[in-house]
């Protein structure tokens, strides 16, 4: 149940970050920075949740760590174009 809430919250944050638009360059820069942060954190959360489903014991911890790193990197690359 908690995993679904976290995934839903992260997805909503990413979608809302993409909806902000303004002609002011300073506002655009701030919104882009927020989108980068949201993409990185959201990717890390989703990656960690996916990684936690792999293996058990030490393998689960390693899966979580790899998922957090990979998800954060992927989320950053997608959101910070």
Describe the structure.
It is a single chain. The chain has 81 residues and is mostly helical. The protein has helices spanning 2-18, 25-51, 58-79. The chain has 3 helices and no strands.
Summarize the structure.
Helices cover 81% and strands 0% of the residues.
Produce the secondary structure layout:
Elements: H1 2-18, H2 25-51, H3 58-79
Helix pairs in contact: 1-2, 2-3
Number of beta strands:
0
The ordered H/E elements are HHH
Give the rounded overall mean pLDDT: 79
Helix content: over 70%
- Structural class call reads mainly alpha
Number of distinct helices: 3
Strand fraction equals: under 5%
Measured between the Cα atoms of the first and last residue, the distance is 33 Å
**Global shape:** elongated
Q: What integer value in Å does the Rg equal?
A: 15 Å
**What are the low-pLDDT stretches, counting only 5+ consecutive residues below 50?**
none
Largest sheet geometry: none
Task: Name the descriptors.
81 residues, mainly alpha
């Amino acid at each position: 149940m908690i995993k679904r809430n976290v995934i839903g919250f992260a997805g909503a944050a990413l979608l809302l970050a993409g909806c902000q638009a303004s002609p002011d360059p300073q506002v655009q820069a701030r919104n882009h920075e927020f989108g980068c942060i949201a993409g990185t954190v959201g990717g890390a959360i989703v990656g960690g949740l996916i990684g936690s489903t792999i293996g058990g014991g030490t393998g689960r911890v390693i899966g979580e760590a790899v998922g957090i790193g990979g998800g954060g990197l992927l989320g950053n690359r997608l959101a910070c174009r």
